[in-house]
Write a structure and sequence with these properties.
4 domains, single chain, 48% helix, 8-stranded mixed β-sheet, alpha/beta
Length: 697
């Protein structure tokens, strides 16, 4: 439970971190989305068509007069074998050549491709004497440019016009000391559209075809093959796939008919010998009967004769089945073993029948023998005649072991690109990239977050952790502490006020110097609202803007920039002339004044120190808002006369070394001052819902 809660907290912290760094996340996601849209529209639509074929099993029985034919031959193969046959160069190569897939014409205009208005050109002849062209020039493609919807110009690799022609005509023209041939059989293009031409050798064209072609068996041992082909043109994909299917069907029929013709020729050669054997057996039987006269065949002899005929017929049929099975299975297959066992049983029964025959009288044995020979020869002759007739039907017709169930049909919707998926994936990639950048930046950032770590490393206390509050130190011309006293940032500054009061020694100078490490950390925000909170206690407070270079406290209170601290130090104005009332009771402000040529010298002068001493007599508290300590030495000079130094640092912004150096600089001219830290823009809990920005230097 604790682990799940920790993971939930970590995820919530990550989400907050990503939201805080929206200036990184939004551009990453936006750029990724733009790239995704570009990719989705850049990819050419690809259409996929499919067709279904059925492969008849060798064990399938034919109908009608062809019932016995499978026992003579079988041309179909298992689906796995047929798939490899279909993917052979013999089948695919024929389709490639017939559909002219060895020639390609690729549109080259990028804008047309992005807007999906590319032209189309299909060529049926592109024969150039490449052997006569230097090898270093072959890498530059030839270009065909449409001049209108039916005519074009052909340019060679040197961008030289070699032909102006029209669609449907075959052109033979001299080139490189030989003859080149070119023919465009289809073109759908507007004037000015260009196409890169390429001629692939046969093997490369077949390899390219195989990448777009797929064939697989639907289910297991169904004998149903699914063909599919992908192309940027759905009509061409349909034509190509149907050509593959019909080409395979045609070759299958031709192969099957060729096998039937071979078997027919063999049977017709054997037929005279079988007929002669039948005539010879019949002649022997008649001669013997004339010699011995009529022989009365008893019931026992008749039974033995009939049984022998039946056994011999069964044995012949079984042997034919065995031969067919051997063509399908290995010798150790259970089907083959079963047929062999049945064959052995029939042979044993036939041997027993022969033994029973030998117990008959000699005359009856001879008659039985001759009668059996006549019956067997007649059966063989009749069977052979029937098979010959069946084979003649197969040879005369288009009968194969393959049939097309579904021809390919043109589709209207492309299978890819899936634009929404691409855009979503790129947006996710943009989110992931931004999150990775934010995480790495946070991981490798040397910014300090832990107040205890700062106290332990520097030896100075962190008096307040001020979360993000109002965008400015004031709302209109009134401090945030007055307008929104319950703001989370004001509450933290109120805690700072209490800590400073506790740390002030009795009789010490009632002057607080506020500085920041770098611009933008919010020191002026702290100064203004701290002064307002002290004024709220009834103390007479003077807020001095000691940033003589880029002071801006007068803007916070709606005062026009004029004479200020710099003019007092230059002797150009008196204290009373530059101190202004504010809308907050007991709070007065001395603005920075115009920018002097020597701010550091003025703040380091005795005049500055004496001025502060005089002001301490008139005010209960003086707060001096100084420049950032890491940029100029003004802050250290301005703080040499204060009793309390407050350094404002930003959460997760500064390294501990920078913080140490900043505090060391501030204390150089006033080592007796009591120093403390304020962590501004602190992040914890749900405080991140507040946000504000600061003036820039």
């Amino acid at each position: 439970m604790a682990s799940a809660k920790k993971e939930e907290t970590d995820l919530w912290d990550l989400l907050k971190d990503l939201a805080k760094n929206w200036k990184i996340m939004v551009p990453c996601i936006f750029v990724a989305g733009i790239i995704g849209v570009f990719i989705a529209f850049w990819i050419r639509p690809v259409y996929k068509v499919d067709a279904l074929l059925q492969i008849e099993s060798k064990s399938n029985k034919s109908v009608g007069m062809m019932g016995g034919l499978p026992s003579l031959f079988a041309s179909s193969s298992p689906a796995e074998t047929e798939i490899e046959l279909i993917k052979s160069r013999h089948i695919i190569g024929e389709a490639v050549e017939k559909m002219h897939l060895q020639y390609t014409a690729t549109p080259v205009n990028s804008l047309d491709r992005l807007l999906h208005r590319e032209g189309r050109m299909e060529i049926s002849r592109f024969e150039v004497p490449w052997t006569l062209i230097p090898k270093n020039e072959k890498i530059v493609p030839w270009i065909a440019e449409a001049t209108d919807s039916t005519t074009f110009n052909l340019y060679d690799h040197n961008n030289k016009l070699v032909l102006s022609g029209s669609v449907g005509n075959t052109y033979h023209f001299p080139y490189a000391g030989d003859t080149a041939v070119f023919c465009v059989h289809r073109m759908e293009a507007t004037a000015g559209q260009k196409f890169e031409l390429q001629e692939l050798n046969r093997l490369d064209a077949i390899a390219a075809f195989k990448k777009a072609f797929e064939i697989k068996e639907k289910g297991k041992k169904t004998g149903i093959l699914e063909f599919s082909y992908q192309d940027i043109y759905p009509d061409r994909a349909t034509q190509i796939l149907n050509e593959i299917a019909t080409s395979y069907l045609r070759q299958n029929v031709e192969q099957r008919n060729a096998e039937a013709q071979k078997t027919l020729e063999f049977l017709e050669k054997q037929l005279p010998a079988v007929k002669e054997q039948m005539d010879s057996s019949l002649l022997k039987f008649n001669t013997y009967r004339n010699k011995v006269g009529s022989v009365d065949i008893g019931a026992e002899t008749q039974i033995i004769l009939e049984k022998r005929n039946v056994l011999q017929q069964k044995l012949l049929d079984l042997q034919q089945k065995k031969q067919s099975a051997i063509r399908l299975f290995q010798p150790e297959h259970p089907t083959i073993k079963t047929l062999e066992e049945q064959e052995n049983n029939l042979k044993r029964e036939l041997a027993n029948n022969t033994a029973a025959t030998k117990r008959l009288p000699n005359t009856q044995q001879e008659v039985l023998k001759l009668t059996n020979e006549v019956d067997m020869s007649k059966h063989m002759y009749t069977t052979m005649l029937n098979n010959i007739q069946q084979l003649k039907l197969v040879s005369a017709g288009e009968v194969g072991s393959v049939r097309i169930i579904d021809f390919a049909e043109e589709v209207s919707r492309p299978m890819k690109p899936k634009k929404s998926m691409i855009i979503f994936a790129m947006l996710f990639l943009g989110l992931l990239t931004g999150a990775t950048f934010v995480t790495l930046r946070s991981k490798f950032s040397n910014g300090v977050r832990d107040a205890n770590f700062i106290e332990r490393e520097t030896g100075f206390s962190v008096y307040a952790k001020v979360p993000k509050g109002n965008p400015n130190g004031t709302k209109g011309t009134r401090p945030l502490a007055v307008v929104e006293p319950d703001d989370v940032a004001v509450e933290s500054i109120r805690a700072l006020r209490s800590s400073l009061e506790f740390s002030m020694e009795e009789g010490s100078s009632p002057t607080i110097g506020v500085s920041g490490l770098i611009p933008g950390v919010g020191k002026s925000f702290i100064s203004v609202n701290l002064a307002a909170l002290y004024a709220g206690l009834g103390k007479k407070v003077l807020l001095i803007d000691a940033d003589l270079r880029k002071g801006r406290l007068h803007k916070e209170f709606g005062i026009k920039r004029g004479k200020g601290l710099s003019q007092i130090l230059l002797g150009e104005a008196t204290v009373d002339e530059v101190i202004h009332n504010t809308e907050v009771d007991n709070l007065f402000i001395m603005q920075c004044g115009t920018v002097p040529p020597n701010p550091s010298e003025l703040l380091g002068s005795k005049h500055y120190a004496s001025m502060i001493s005089e002001l301490e007599k008139s005010y209960d508290l003086i707060i001096v808002d100084t420049p950032p300590i890491m940029l100029v030495t003004d802050a250290a000079l301005a703080c040499r006369v204060v009793s309390q130094i407050v350094m404002v640092i930003e959460y997760n912004k500064h390294s501990i070394d920078a913080i140490k150096d900043g505090m060391t600089q501030l204390l150089k001219g006033n080592s007796n001052a009591h120093a403390s830290f304020v962590i501004n823009k602190y992040e914890h809990g749900h405080s991140d819902g507040y946000g504000y920005k600061y003036g820039k230097y």
